[in-house]
Amino acid sequence: MKKTVLMFFVLLFVGSMAIAQEVSFEEYDLDNGLHVILHQDNTAPVVNISVFYHVGAKDENPNKTGFAHFFEHLLFEGTKNIKRGEWDKIVASNGGRGNATTNQDRTYYYETFPSNSLEVGLWLESERLMHPVINKVGVDTQSEVVQEERRLRYDNAPYGRWREQMFVNLFKKHPYRWQTIGSMEHLAGATLEDFKEFNQKFYVPNNAVLVVAGDIDTDKTKKMIQDYFGPIPRGAKIVRKEFVEDPIAETIKTKYHDPNIQIPAILMGYRTPAQTERDAYVLDVISTYLSDGKSSKLYKKLVDEQKQALQVFAFNGSQEDYGAYIVGALPVGETSLADLIAEIDEEIVKIQTDLISERDYQKLQNKFENLFVNANSSIAGIANSLGTYHMLYGDTNLINTEIDIYRSISREEIKEVANKYLKPNQRVELEYLPEAPVQN
């Protein structure tokens, strides 16, 4: 009897958690094309204001790269009604915090405030969109900031150029071949008019998604959004080019010497489908199986048991148009990069040949359940998910249903997708090496 009662409460608790994870939202468009998503959660006096612009490094002119990331910095310089240097002070004085990020597909600005400062956040973001000040002072200042960022994170960081070297070989036509940081030469050679044109083209309401999540009154929030964002004029329609890559038919072998490292690395990259494709989800599962955590197949084999690798990794970097599946390792002692390739390929072949065990399959399901719960465990996380799913996936409700895709992936499907994409003749093999010693 006690066991029956205990099981009843366990099931009741699990059921209530499943209900609690459902994220409710409302979405609509303003007349100027701005897409608005609202999520009301009055459990804590906090609100998040996020604005996503559908512009990333892939939207840049090949001869003017780095603009999307540069604007992430530049648009904190000030507006017609916010003096230079005052943006962060306004956020902090209202108890908030904020930041921005850029990738190859989108640029994302966000602030989290006490809910009584919601109007301040909406005003700030409407100012960024309507009244940005783009002048020589701001451009010169942020140019120094971006150059320093490149030096710290790319040029002088150990293994800082691996992604650059991998993607320039994975992609020959698509703009994914250059990195978000872009070219310092391109930025230095750009005119003030170039920056203004970029702003006028991409920073328009019909290219943006506004998410307001947290302790809000929906009707009052709609009124404020209309007041602050409604008067902003619609921009010209943005026409995006499509880039179709030729299949990789034979292994691309390449090397890069990094003066900032002492231990070499081997990286193998496979071009994969867009993040909206079902196969991309299956590749997420495969990468988790191979190298997520100390119990994963590659870590346990190469690091723990055979002690051939200092570190091993596999991840599926899905993006809007294509993805990149990367697997690699750093050797220990006398282990060669060729040895690591052989050992990694052996594990991939196992996935391609046999079904993974039922026990491993259940472990994967549990991991993705945890990721799903954690992604929506904060107001900021919910806002990020809502905006991302609408802009880059075309389905806002994936915030509630994406987990069902992972749940539906079978062991047979894992085997099938591994065979489809993870072939040696369809990859880039990058030997990432220490700088060769100077010969006297």
What is the rounded distance between the termini?
Answer: 84 Å
* Level-1 CATH class name of the largest domain: Alpha Beta
Strand order, main sheet: write it out: 1-2-6-3-5-4
Outline, from the CA principal axes?
globular
SSE order, as H and E?
HEEEHHEEHHHHHEHEEHHEEHHHHHE
Number of domains: 2
Total number of helices: 16
Give the beta-strand count. Answer: 11
Runs with pLDDT <50, length 5+?
1-20
Question: Biggest sheet, in brief?
Answer: 6 strands, mixed
What does the radius of gyration come to? Answer: 24 Å
- What percent strand? 15-25%
CATH topology of the largest domain: Cytochrome Bc1 Complex, Chain A, domain 1
Share of residues in helices:
40-55%
Keywords: Hydrolase, Metalloprotease, Protease, Signal, Zinc
Family: Belongs to the peptidase M16 family.
GO molecular function: metal ion binding; metallopeptidase activity
Protein name: Insulinase family protein
Can you walk through the features of this model?
- The protein has 440 residues and is an alpha+beta fold.
- The chain has two domains: 25-229, 2-Layer Sandwich (Cytochrome Bc1 Complex, Chain A, domain 1), CATH 3.30.830.10; 252-434, Cytochrome Bc1 Complex, Chain A, domain 1.
- Residues 1-20 have low confidence and may be disordered.
- It has helices at 2-20, 67-74, 87-93, 118-130, 136-155, 162-170, 184-189, 192-202, 218-229, 278-291, 297-305, 337-353, 358-375, 379-393, 398-408, 411-421, and strands at 26-29, 35-40, 46-53, 97-102, 107-114, 208-214, 252-258, 265-272, 309-318, 323-331, 427-434.
- The chain is built from 16 helices and eleven strands.
